[in-house]
Specification:
The structure is a single chain. This protein is mainly alpha-helical and 278 residues long. Helix content is 78%, strand content 0%. The radius of gyration is 23 Å and the shape is globular. The relative contact order is 0.13.
Length: 278
Amino acid sequence: MSSASARRVLPGFGLSLGFTIAYLSLIVLIPMIAVFAKAATFSASEFWNVVTSPRVVASYKLSFGASLLAAAINVVFGFMLAWALVRYSFPGRKLVDALVDLPFALPTAVAGIALTAIYAPNGWIGKYLEPLGIKIAFTPVGVLIALIFIGLPFVVRTVQPVLEDLDVELEEAAATLGAQRWQTFRKVVLPTLTPALLTGFALAFARAVGEYGSVIFIAGNIPMVSEITPLMIITKLEQYDFKGATAIAAVMLVISFIMLLIINALQGASDRRSGREV
């Protein structure tokens, strides 16, 4: 078979590719270019003053720091939850499996109000923590909890199918060869799951960075303390400072893109290492 005929195995490939590129351009590329084009109307000094103001820098630290920490926590506990759902049978297992998807379906504002009702000083749990000097609502801790809540399903649903396809006989073979449980997990299970865990981490991080609705209620939006970057963008828009909003958005896009590139590079290295080991 000639190379020309091999390229025509998929009928309409050229048309499909053209439609895909046009669709992605309209939905993703053009809006992103518009953000950078609007931000470019600033002079260099004006742009720098806007994106490095103390209040905006504090929001960067909170948004990206809390998002990274929430994604890391979700990797650990999301893996444990996926493992329990795949490897064990227990009463209410199907209900727990369905509840994992609740943050997907729940409106973010409803999630924020619910979390605030629980962790506020007069909330169900907050009223018991307040006398102990532990404050969750209206602090960065509350932001972290909200981001953990909305990011957990991404890790569970990414790891769960890989666990279901993982051959238990490999673990049994390792045990018969004298491997301890930790050795079996580290040498057999973890290399297979690492790409899925990194994918879940990336998805949870990406969702957390841009989260707004579930955070603003429990954050309290205290300047320099619990303001997230999406809120700073909304604040600029409410003040009709469109250039300032796009400048902050451009910085947020660049930082998010760099972090996702790093995560994807780690995932690719893990995939290659797993392939060599197989």
